[in-house]
Each structure stands twice: as C-alpha cells, then as structure tokens.
Write a structure and sequence with these properties.
Number of domains: 1
Order of helices and strands: EEEEEEEEEEEEEEEEE
Distance between the termini: 15 Å
Largest sheet: 7 strands, antiparallel
Shape: elongated
Strand order of the largest sheet: 5-9-10-13-16-4-6
Helix content: under 10%
Radius of gyration: 19 Å
Length: 155
C-alpha cells in the first residue's frame, strides 16, 4: 500500500517482479514430513509463451503444470525408501501477472512460494514387518522459482 499525499489517500499497488523464462530453475523445498532424496530436488521449467526476451521464451500460465521430477522419499516410520513425483500444484497469486500477457496468457513471475504436490508412485515401507507400505498417496509442500534473469520485470 502506498500513501499519496496529493490526494490524501492510500492506494494498493502491485510491485513489479522478475519474469520467469525458459529453463529457469524450479526448486522444491519442504514437503510435509518427507525426507526427499535428493534433499532439495531441482528441475527446470519449459516456456511456451509467444513473447521472447533476449532470445528466450517467457513462461506463461499453464507451463507450471508440465513441471515434474521423480525422486525417492522416506517418511517416519517408513525408513525403506519409496518413490514418487513432485509437481507444481498451484502458483501463488503473486506469481502471475495481472496486466502483462503473452499470447493472451498471464506471464509467470518469481513471486514467493508455490504449492507443491508429491504423488507416491511406490510407497516407502517399514523394515519390519516386511513390506508394510506408507498408506498416504500424496503429500503437499512448497517450492520456489529461481529466475536466471534478474532485471526484466512485469506486473
């Protein structure tokens, strides 16, 4: 919120943020009580926007749905690793433009944290009794987008 002395009023403003582009890093962090293997899984996001900046396409709403990475996990008391797939479930509101678009789609911004989803493919198990599987089919967590670009911003 910004105070405008001239009109004696407060205005809500959207601060500009850095644009996410093709091959920028996606880092998954905390996912419930899971211990992820590797500890901080990283991958990249592929852009489908029509706009290019310095030869790289911008990421647009929907590109986040194609991000996924397979990793192993354990969760107490299931100490024998299982495996699953990490995905971006939802971007935070501050991770999409309100004004700027590319091909009529909102552009993805760095923002804060997105909501991550870990879907269990092969459950972690207890060492004994043998093969007692983790009964939880999915876990929710967070992650962040790490831009290579530090200067080009949008709202």
């Amino acid at each position: 919120m910004i105070y405008n002395e001239e009109n004696d009023e407060y205005k809500y403003t959207r601060i500009m943020d850095v644009i996410i582009m093709n091959d920028d890093t996606v880092e998954f962090s905390k996912v419930g009580l899971l211990t992820l293997i590797p500890p901080i899984p990283k991958t990249t996001i592929k852009a489908s926007g029509k706009t290019t900046i310095n030869g790289k396409k911008v990421c647009v709403q929907g590109d986040e749905k194609k991000v996924e990475i397979t990793c192993q996990y354990t969760v107490p008391p299931f100490s024998t690793p299982g495996s699953g797939t990490l995905k971006i479930m939802n971007l935070a509101p501050n991770q999409l433009t309100r004004k700027a678009t590319s091909g009529n789609k909102k552009i993805i911004l760095k923002g804060k944290l997105f909501i991550a989803l870990f879907e269990v493919d092969s459950p972690a198990t207890l060492p004994s009794p043998p093969n007692t599987p983790d009964p939880v089919p999915m876990y929710v967590g967070t992650g962040k987008l790490i831009p290579g670009n530090k200067k080009i911003k949008a709202t």
